[in-house]
Amino acid sequence: MGSPRMSELGQRWISFVGNLLGAVVAFLYFRVVDQASARLPPVGWIDIVVSLVVFVLIVAVGVRVSLPWTRPLDRVGELHTLPPAEAELVRRRALLFPYFLAGVSFVGWLVAGLVWGVVWPALAGGFSLSASLRLLFGITVIAGGVTVAFIFFASEHQWRRYLPQVFPEGGLRAVGGVPRLTVRVRLLAILLLIGVVPLAVLGMLAYTRAVALVGADPATAAAIVDTLQLIILFLLAVGVAAAVGLSIFAANSVAAPLREVEGAMARVERGLLDGRAPVVSTDEIGAVAEGFNRMLQGLRERELVKETFGKYVTPEIRDEILAGRIRGEGALVEATILFADLRDFTPWVEATEPRQVVRDLNEYFTLMDEAIRAHGGLVLQFIGDEIEAVFGAPIASPDHAARAVQAALEMRRRLQAWNARRAAAGQPPLRNGIGIHTGTVLAGNIGGAERLSYALVGDPVNLASRIQGLTKDFKADILVSDATRRRLDGTVAVEELPAVRVKGRTEDVNVYKVT
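RE: above sequence
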């Protein structure tokens, strides 16, 4: 992409070439179209050399005069370290640079028109208001207009490649003191240059030639007609060249930014939110690109919130909440509840350094959570050293009881493997107890106005917790209720234990040890 400084040099070459083309157009205009007002002698090599030397001098003076204005652009690479006022000046000059080049060229052509159309004829003693106006029109309006338009659109097209370096985050429209050249104004200006001006010139010349034909002898009339044909060919050639060139620049000024936005939209459709649409103008298309970038930033923030939210409430609950499928008043569902609790937790904490306790707990919870998730379960909360999980809510599954038991077996295997690694490292093993029960519970968002959590309410939750407590009495690591056992398909071996009375219930509870 290069640097803005290199692009600035490229803009000056555009200005040089554009003014050279304008000089050629002016020369041909007065040699072909309006010979009378210029009263030019036959051209010779000395005239061409002198004209080129004068042209180069004028361009050099323009470059020298413009250097102080463009000097702030040399500090584009220091924008992040500049004071706010200086940084704002650099950004404003960067946006105004194509206008500045076109303005310098316009002033040059206006001066040229005044010098060659007014001052020079007056000094030569042949001043004529009509001829001076025609000279001023040909130099400033025809040649100067085409030149200024070419320089502006060409330099703007080239300069847009470097504006993203000055405005990496967009915000072009926030810079004050910069013209807002809308797409409509741009197209109307081009229509004026390639349509109205040539037609006006052609109409004026056709009228003057028609007047000249009145009363002319045949030889003079034939010469007038031949001259008119040459004029028409000249205007057609210049008009077509200007129309094609300006149309290409105008089309690119609209199509190129839209292609960038379209490409950025395609990336978003593929789920890639790390890009952005370059903002290279202050017109409506620039506003569209900035709006798209704001939307993309909002999507990134929403994705970050969603990802962070999922770490606190699990992705399943997150997605259900964001989709609006979890009702505030809750819903009755049949589910299987699992409670897991570490054995001898208090003595282990007292004998272990606190940071090590946190590290071990996090590793333990990670392993257990992975086992639960692997079988479609959902961890509702970690309470001290206890895990509460549910199968069959908030996403329903008909085999939630079997999933819960398989998850408990997976938790047993993972804990055994982890203890083997701990033993190899000289650390004591940890044990847990798991209780499982199936029943109908109320599942939904529970909490205050400012804080909610997804939770289960109902007697089955309490009973599952009590069954987990019975693992200590029966010296078992996994116990299931009779309601859960009846929903299993017989592939899991269980051993019936004596019925037992648990706290808070008037009837004995039948439990089974998973073997």
